[in-house]
């Protein structure tokens, strides 16, 4: 299998698994107990917290472990909204956010909050001036993702964060797709809250973290024994936390070489597709995108059919977000770029990982070209386009 869906999930790194194994077997202690098994678990948990913090330029005390990116997003957005609703009930976000943010904001609208959904422009980037113009006296939170999960475009987070800081507004960023792939420094980005998920950076599923800047107070979503500074109570998932910590450590160590390697593969893939397949288009900014993301659309075909054709060639790809893969509606991200529904349905997302090899690229290009040609012969949309 040539795996090109790393934005959905990534391989569990063998070094991560080795680090986790003792805590799945003999080192099974509860990190809240005082005997040696518990102390060993606590020590491993705090080392992991240090590794997560180091990757994003935070202090360990600012890292709260969660079950993943969705919980982190909910904790940041709802926790801020409920804690500070006496100061205002207005939230600013964008139209291209991940469902974990978008659906949370929609829910808050049913609870009396007002949400402004900012547009993006042709390349899928939020305008800083639009953010500033949307701020009101009762704005309590801005939440804009760092990098889009579908088209990979990177947002001007540092500039937005600077405005939020000047206005005294909390700023959250869903950085699930960017942490571990590109440098992320919470100080430089001017964020107060930042979401992380382990399985997007070669760690285990079911574990993530939320950066909470020192001094920020959130309303807990659940209540219990006071774990994680009382923000996220519940017995800690020590094996997975250890895995997240190790994944962050490896990402930090190999960041530069991974970026260079993946960017080279990505650009070869983009150039090969655009040069060899007529009426193929790249979605999102050509350069201001994640190093592993290539997102295309093809006139006259349907993306799901293309994914199935590629699966028969042992290539794993997707049309967009894994969280929306069963939804037959066109991608809200692509529609936000101004595409027609038919064009949005003809999309393909290829997201590379460090396990991909240079020889994967020409085979993938050839396979996509063959699949597109086959599907176009069957497509009434393509026949109509040829006759124009």
Order of helices and strands: EHHEHEHEHEHEHEEHEEHEHHEHH
Rg is: 22 Å
Q: Would you identify the regions where 5 or more consecutive residues have pLDDT less than 50?
A: none
* Biggest sheet record: 7 strands, mixed
CATH class placement of the largest domain: Alpha Beta
Q: Strand arrangement, largest sheet?
A: 2-8-7-6-5-3-4
Q: Structural class per helix/strand content?
A: alpha/beta
Q: Number of DSSP strands?
A: 12
What share of the residues lie within helices? Answer: 40-55%
**Overall body shape:** globular
- In CATH, the topology of the largest domain is named Aspartate Aminotransferase, domain 2
The CATH superfamily of the largest domain is: Type I PLP-dependent aspartate aminotransferase-like (Major domain)
Strand content: 5-15%
| CATH architecture level-2 label of the largest domain | 3-Layer(aba) Sandwich
Q: Multimeric state of these chains?
A: single chain
Tally the structural domains: 2
Mean pLDDT: 95
Measure the end-to-end span.
Answer: 39 Å
Tally of helical segments: 13
